[in-house]
Amino acid sequence: SLDDKGYNHARYWFRYFMKTLKVGIMPREDFQKRVLEIAKGRYSPKRDEPKVWFSSIKSLGQVLSENNIRLLKIIEQQQPETLTELSEMSGRKLSNLSRTLKTLERYGIISLVKTQTAIRPIAKATSFNILYAA
Known about the structure:
Number of helices: 6
Strand order of the largest sheet: 2-1-5
Mean pLDDT: 87
Low-confidence stretches: none
Strand content: 15-25%
Number of strands: 5
């Protein structure tokens, strides 16, 4: 719930219960076969399997680049209140930053929490276990 400043207390929850995100790398064709097997009921993913998948090491590297990891550390350690504040802290332009944050959110690495006056980035994962399915 939001307090009188539009502050979402879930921010603290994320901070104290931050997790290591399990990430998998699997060729697109294999991933599509896997999804079909799951949909047909022939395969049930194990609890400890990654929930986030990339089609190559290259695509993983684009999302978890040095710049994006640095951005993630700023979000975790400095806890910016707004995207504008994060832009100032990181030295990145707001338009570029917004695209990057939406990508990180799509992969479950951050959460973009809407308050009454702004959007606040929250780090959900700051460490990663990578499974390479050859």
